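FIELD: query
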Amino acid sequence: MTNTAIRYTPELKQTLIDLHEKGHSFKELHEEYGPSLDTIRKWVQAATVIAIDHQGTAVPNEQFKQLQKENRRLREELDILKRAAVLLAKR
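FIELD: result
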């Protein structure tokens, strides 16, 4: 089975995101450039700024989700280390 997924350049993705932000509909962008409506919608959603960090830098949705995932992992690691410290202190 071969991978038939079409790869789009980051430049095209950014162009479509910018055009959508300027008021073009997903349908217009799909008809003119080719990527599916859902694909364009996902690109726009991933690039949507949902927060601004303490340094004033915009944090896109995609990066925010990655940071949340890393935060969960670090909290789990911290919890494991706390439990191990309690077990070692009992000895």
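FIELD: remark
The first helix runs from residue 10 to 21.
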